[in-house]
Amino acid sequence: MSQPPSPPQNGQYMPNGRPRPGAPSSASGAPSVPSQPRYQDYGNPRAYDTSVRPASGLTAARFAPAQIQRPDQAQPQSAWSTQTRQAQLVSQEATKVPTVSIAVWLSVVILGFLLLAVLGYFFLQFVMTASSNPVWWPATAFLASTSLLVIALIMFLADRWDPQPIPLLIIAVFWGAAIAAGTSYVLNTLNSYLVYIVTGSADAANFAGPVISAPLVEETTKGIGLLLLMILARRYFNGPMDGLIYGSLIGGGFAFTENIIYYTRQLESSGVGGVLFLFLLRGILNIFGHAIYTALTGIIVGFVARKWGTIMGFLVFVPALIPGMLIHGGWNLFSVMGNSWLAIGIMYGTKAIIALIWLISIPVLIWDESRLTRIRLGDYANQGWLTHEEVDMLATWKGRREGKLWATQINARPVMKRFIRESADLASIRQRLLADGANPKVVETERKLLHRLTANRQELLSQAR
Description:
Layout: H1 102-129, H2 137-158, H3 166-199, H4 202-232, H5 240-285, H6 289-308, H7 310-315, H8 317-337, H9 341-382, H10 388-394, H11 397-409, H12 413-436, H13 440-464
Helix pairs in contact: 1-3, 2-5, 3-4, 3-5, 4-5, 4-6, 4-8, 5-6, 5-9, 6-8, 6-12, 9-10, 9-12, 11-12, 12-13
């Protein structure tokens, strides 16, 4: 590889050879860079890497370790590296999410039809058995949708660092609302009936259904959707933050359908006042119940998959279900046995603490994801693909805001937003290569993203001129 010439020693450059902030690129318009990239330590990468890769067995890496190749040609200093940092803050705007294949959109359509079929079944069942006017059924669906919208809004705000494809988010909601809810309804009903046949006791059936069957069946059916997303959409399932987002949306979709069932039954037995009281209990005080249960599974699976690879993420699935099952079962147990106001207060007080911990975990995981992005992009900067100033710009909230503000001033904001989004995707791909080894398909994805990274840098440099 030919070495670029040393930078000229003039007023545009500092003694270490780097351009002074605000200095023009060069007289020819194509700045040169030092022949060797500077190395910079971005923290503790081992915290995100597996410390031991077994040489054999199910947990062994399928592929050899993935190494970062040096660029074929020295990368020019980007336009961002020659500008003075601007401290003015700008509002964070939504970025364009990655595109996905037609098969994913087809899955959305199929799951959407299944959801309509499930809701249609419950509607017909309500019309045939309820003494109330069926015109109230859409009102119960509206009440159930408000809780789902709140969860979806929180996940939308949580997903701003490295946004997930919208079709996958829709699939998560539809899986919970259609597949998980419909399957759980059938299996829970069947299990309660079997307990009644064996014991001859309605009380035993009413206890076993919500306390034993519901946690086991519902968390498994919801978790299977999470597992399928991890396996089939592995590129977008990169860690505990993604697991929390997909798990919460699956749980929110499940609660949507389940709440419709409960609200319509309550309307039949207690009227409008009973529905509003139940909405207070389920739709407000316990709004995050199912979202929390499945999010716990997603966080565990995502953490293991990020650090130890896809195979380990698959193997940890069953243990990852246990925390959600235990909390779910404990909640239902208190619901069945706790008839006093003291028991109800303990129930909802405990759930409020759990919900608060869940909400606090969201910014913590966002911070963790941004830190990982900075470390992984630092790997590329240390090999010459990026400048270290760009890493600070791409992998911090402040840097992103300032970078987009600067890009707006040179009419290159769309380029900067694409640069930020694709760089975050590249950091995730690098982490996956460390966890799963140099899978040829993933290596090819990395190569394409590095090509896009170079193109984005060159386009920004061209715009700055």
